[in-house]
Write a structure and sequence with these properties.
140 residues
């Protein structure tokens, strides 16, 4: 009985989120790094990004997976906070905090993102404070 209930909950959750789910693409950059991302919005306030640092060779391939929550969602901007992990060249726990500004009235799916990206680097046992600026486009 418990297994059946779990399956029903999973099916309900899938269809609930599938009604809203949207994909996004993004690019972030600072003075030393750049990263590209593919995102998935589960809900209007909850979205995930798989970001990969660009310009790295295969040995330094560094993926970053973050789950973000929109704290404020207005017509012209959104603020968000998240949590995630990066592995390999930078291995750590990430807490992104950002603002997404919608600069163009006619293209509501395009945002200019400014993100503070504190990272606890586990290999170095150090806290890195980095900032990124980027663009994100939500495909509808």
């Amino acid at each position: 009985m418990k297994k059946r209930n779990l399956i029903l909950i999973l099916i309900f959750t899938f269809f609930y989120f599938a009604n809203y789910a949207q994909t996004s693409v993004s690019f972030y950059q600072n003075d030393t790094n750049s990263k590209i991302g593919i995102g998935y919005e589960f809900h209007e306030r909850l979205w995930a990004d798989l970001r990969v640092y660009s310009g790295t060779n295969i040995e330094n391939f560094t993926p970053e997976l973050v789950l973000n929550y929109n704290l404020v969602k207005k017509e012209r901007y959104e603020t968000y906070i998240g949590a995630g992990l990066s592995l390999n060249n930078i291995s750590g726990i990430i807490i992104p905090v950002g603002v997404a500004i919608k600069p163009l009235d006619k293209i509501k799916n395009l945002t200019l993102n400014i993100e503070l990206n504190p990272t606890y680097e586990m290999d170095l046992d150090d806290l890195l404070i980095r900032g990124f600026i980027g663009v994100r486009y939500v495909l509808k």
